[in-house]
Write a structure and sequence with these properties.
The complex is a heterodimer.
Chain A (H helix, E strand, L loop, with lengths): L6 H28 L4 H10 L17 H14 L1 H20 L2 H12 L5 E4 L15 E5 L2 E12 L6 E7 L9 E7 L5 E3 L13 E11 L3 E2 L5 H37 L1 E2 L2 E2 L4 H30 L4 H31 L5 H9 L8 H15 L2
Parallel strand pairs in A: 1-4
Antiparallel strand pairs in A: 2-3, 3-7, 4-5, 5-8, 6-7, 9-10
Helix pairs in contact in A: 1-2, 1-3, 3-4, 3-6, 4-5, 4-6, 6-7, 6-8, 6-9, 7-8, 8-9, 8-10
Chain B lengths: L1 E6 L1 E3 L21 E3 L1 H20 L5 E8 L4 H10 L3 E6 L6 H15 L3 E5 L10 H9 L2 E12 L2 E8 L2 E8 L2 E5 L11 H7 L4 E4 L1 H4 L27 H10 L5
Parallel strand pairs in B: 1-4, 1-6, 4-5, 5-11, 6-10, 7-10
Antiparallel strand pairs in B: 2-3, 7-8, 8-9
Helix pairs in contact in B: 2-5, 3-4
Classes of the chains: A alpha+beta, B alpha/beta.
Amino acid sequence: MNFEMTAEELAVVDSAEQVAREVIQPLAQHYDETESFCLASIRALGDLGCMGINLPEEYGGLGIGSLAMSRVVEAVAGACASTASAMTAHFLATDSILLGGTEQQKQEWLPRAASGELLGAFALTEPAAGSNPADMRSRAAREEGGWRIRGSKHYITNAKEADFIVLYVKTDADAGHKGISAFMVPRGTAGISFSSPEKTMGLRGSTIYELALDCWLPESALLGVEGQGFNTAMAVLDRGRVEVAAMSLGIANAALQASLSWVRERQIGPKPLAAYQGTQWRLADMYAQLESARMLTMKAAARRDSGERFSLDSATAKLVAAECAGFITDAALQLHGGYGYSRDLPLERYVRDARILRIFEGTSEVQKIIISRALLDATR
Amino acid sequence: MKVLACIKRVVDYNVKVRVKADNSGVDLANVKMSMNPFCEIAVEEAVRLKELSIKEGGVATEIVVVCIGPTTAQEQLRTALALGADRAILVESAEDLTSLAVAKLLKAVVDKEQPQLMILGKQAIDSDNNQTGQMLAALTGYGQGTFASKVEVAGDKVVVTREVDGGAQTVSLSLPAIITTDLRLNEPRYASLPNIMKAKKKPLEVLTPEALGVSTASTNKTLKVEAPAARSAGIKVKSVAELVEKLKTEAKVI
């Protein structure tokens, strides 16, 4: 398995890290505290040409490998996890078009989405359909010349800010998974109302909404083939889990780096915190977990480019990385004591931001289902 | 007008450097290397002159970026190409060169390329010599505007505002001319990711000092490199009188 990056990919990672550190990180606390959409950070990523790092060159993307892509996501998440969430939600939308769209739809939407001109959103989850999309109740019914869409979606990142939403609904209510289809919903479509942003524990600079749908869409809005929506969404989520794993590494690494400088400065009695064995063992545990998760993420990223099935790899990476981000951010806060609990330092934000990693794009429990199914299938 | 931007590969400014155990120099093993920050300003200024001239009908038409350094300095040249330079020249030398040797090599490149404007960083953050631009001016016989905070090209002249002690000095130089950049000249842009990918397709020529007919033999030798002495702990004084006494007798500042 090849973990090498090209000279250009290394330079891409380097430039993204610089922008993350110098432009995005200084805004992170502001967006968290004001619970407002991280617009300036997303614009900075658009200017950098970062919004198409998941796409091939033929559709205006950067054409880099998933290894380099995941390093960019990690850098952005380490600076501001909200921004990384808004960016990766955009990737779920554009991946949906890439994997499920017709050639014409790809040409129409992807180059402008890759350039940062258009922002995307991915609408799959419903109030009563989370881990099992087949439970979804939103419907599309054929009407003359198009489709009538009725239903609701919730926890949709970027929904109100987005220029287009990739919407997953049932075109055949009785066909289970096979009845799900995806639609392109451009901004300004009549008959969609947005809730005010949901109040969340973390990722407060990345706004999420509930959508009430009663709208008409033309025939051409159907993304690709009718009934293929579930397969597209699952393939998109397989890809997306590599990005969530990378986000986890970014937040966890930021917490570890903050801890490393803190324990050298903080004096407890005659010695710095770093001189106590309890601290040293904790730091070693944090690092060991981070690096284990990193290797799994790199493996899933490399496999993602190989063309082979990688559900098992991406689910394992997502599970381990998200869990390790929970452990590391908590340990980092503990090392900072009362200062870590204060909102003056980012440690408590890391803890809040990391919590969703074990829930979205498939909970840790869903990852375990995917992993065990793959294992049992392979040994049948 | 052809502009030659000159860059150096140095230890990244975020890195905390360590001196080698034998005091022969700074340890470069596994250390992040970048373009010297003053050189980034030089490249940015060249790119702005070209962007300006696209709007105003042709002042700077081509930017050639040159670096004297090891094979790995191609990374920094590619960065300059991503920032907007048109083509790159690496004069490959693994040696640690003196400012004069670098200036002689640049003079050979100038003879070959015949640029109208040469822009360099005022100094490199590793050796902090602040000599190469001035030496290049002496070798070529061209005018020099060092420590530039503003550059305006008009006809066959370039007007340079210089950062000098206690104020600014404005000089007018006939082209060809040499400029060295100060911090306030501009704020360099970030290399966009698509431009980084496109930079690999731009031409990069590799030359050697031998091919340019330049001897880089040095009359200088670095004897020793040492880390700054660690700051010793302070002391607490018991009274103002004792403080004044120590300021007088030990610190000798009053």
